[in-house]
Amino acid sequence: MTHKTAIIGLGIMGRRLLENLLVHPAFEPVALWDPSAGSCDKARAVAPGVPVVDSAEAAIAAADVLYLACPPVPRKAYALAAAGAGKAVFLEKPLGVDIPESRDLVQRLAAAGTPAAVNFTQASSRGFEVLRSAIDGGEAGDVLGIDIVVTYPAWPRAWQVDADWLRFKAEGGYTREVISHFLFLSERFLGPLTLRWAHPSYPADPALCETQVLARLETTDGRPVSVLGSVGGAQPDRQEVTVKASKTGFRFTEFYQLWKSTGGEWSAAYDFPTDPRRDSLQRQLGELDKCVRGEPHRLATPEEALRVQVLIEGMLAGQS
């Protein structure tokens, strides 16, 4: 049996997952909704055979699984409506922007007892699998800490400009959208983190999101996670996460590529697929299938996503 799946939010992330749902044997997209007519038209072009329904409520009613790719603030109401109707819920990250609201969401999802997970896309990636094997098998040696570097010439990036909310401080910014992925990665491999200090910078317009952020986080035994984020200048996008270890270091680039080094030049840690994003999303859907069936899976739990949100919001608020 396939899982009848609805999508609320048909921006770039919603359409990317829609493309992958169409070719995954465990899922059948049955309903799509977005308040933007333009986004609905783009989704129709991707999947002309999938109905675009008249409301979020109609999308929820049509499906067994709900994927929420809408902005953070409305996500809670849709998630609780779906969970209350016994539907599985797959939420985009960040979990939210208001910590008490997100804590309430996590508690109520748990009480509902329906499957729920959050889409940190690296969770089921080949890179995570290879790094876990290297750590558990001793190839890496002692893991000493993690460095996160994210720099962009502009935010939002060119392919994100339709999602105008991403440029505003209220719900957007690259710290929530990108660095959250890498803090999830850090906690998966190092354990719980505590924010020690953070210094964000903002433009003169108080409505706009951060331009720079520096932060230090630590594990319970003092291993550091260092974060540098910056926007501006003529440069290519840079997204690097370096896992420092005593024998073999590892570096993620562009989310899906994992490299390794014993002190010399970086070399590929595995054979990269032709389309790494598609490979990662198909693997993510495979884990979502397990989640919906009540089987063990590697997706981020709502509890993990809440931990990341607390760290992210602390960074954006600034902490000395």
Write the layout of secondary structure elements.
Elements: E1 3-8, H1 12-21, E2 27-33, H2 37-46, H3 56-62, E3 65-68, H4 72-84, E4 88-91, H5 99-112, E5 116-118, H6 126-136, E6 143-152, H7 174-190, E7 193-201, E8 212-219, E9 224-231, E10 238-245, E11 249-253, E12 257-261, E13 267-268, H8 276-292, H9 302-317
Parallel strand pairs: 1-2, 1-3, 3-4, 4-5, 6-9
Antiparallel strand pairs: 6-10, 7-8, 8-9, 10-11, 11-12, 12-13
Helix pairs in contact: 4-5, 5-9, 7-9
What is the count of β-strands?
A: 13
The low-confidence runs, each spanning 5 or more residues with pLDDT under 50, are none
Q: Please, what is the average pLDDT?
A: 96
Q: What fraction of residues sit in β-strands?
A: 15-25%
Q: What overall geometry do the principal axes of the alpha carbons give?
A: globular
Query: CATH first level of the largest domain: which class?
Result: Alpha Beta
| Total helical elements | 9
Query: Could you give the order of strands across the largest sheet?
Result: 7-8-9-6-10-11-12-13
Q: How far is the first residue's CA from the last residue's CA?
A: 53 Å
Q: Number of domains in the coordinates?
A: 2
Structural class: alpha/beta
> Helicity level, as a percent range?
25-40%
